[in-house]
Amino acid sequence: MRPGIRTVSALILLLSVTGVVAQTEERPLKKPEDSARECKNHQEFRKAGADELILPAISWGNNPQEGEYRREVERLLKLEIQNVNTAILDVVSKHKELIKLYPELKRYQEIVLEDNPGAWRDGLLVNSKKVLSLHYAETGEIDCIVLDSMIRGVNKYELWTRKIMRLYYPSIQTLQLETRTHNLRMLESLENTSPEVQLKALRLVFQNLRTALYSMDMLIAAYYDRRNKRNEWQINL
Question: Where are the domains of the chain?
């Protein structure tokens, strides 16, 4: 074998061994890089359990005929809270599978739900991004969920809106709502909004948790796909 060929062969072997060593090294735990995706108000927004319903008297009028409507709304709210709780438990179960392959995701994971570089909305060209952040306790249970949505003008960069929803589990109904623009910052708690708004918010959270569950499945499938093809280059003679 000529010296040049021996050198190339040795280099390929070195790179393959280095790759194996790198894969076995323990990677640092993921942490949120954006402070807006952190959860810092547990005591303020963790007010109820996953099966409890909070409805301030201000949510309703004084019309006696509202009784039937109120009972139906309460039923729907309890159903949506239950759906969100079920979706969270499914995510926790999938997370236990995921961290066997990606241990760095033990305490925190970000899932990009939408990343649109450009679309027309109300006559303005904007880009948008939606990210779901999952915070886990040391026990592996969900601690907090952050749904972060950003819309920014492409040609008018100063025009932007960021909407953040934080769910401090197990209190599902008391979502923290935060809205930011270039000149505004608003904070609210979901249980202080109308029952109709609460229903819409809970359904949105449920839908995005289901999307996150699918993304976690795809991440697991991608790991096994890479593993199965890891040594394929060695048989390409």
Answer: 47-229
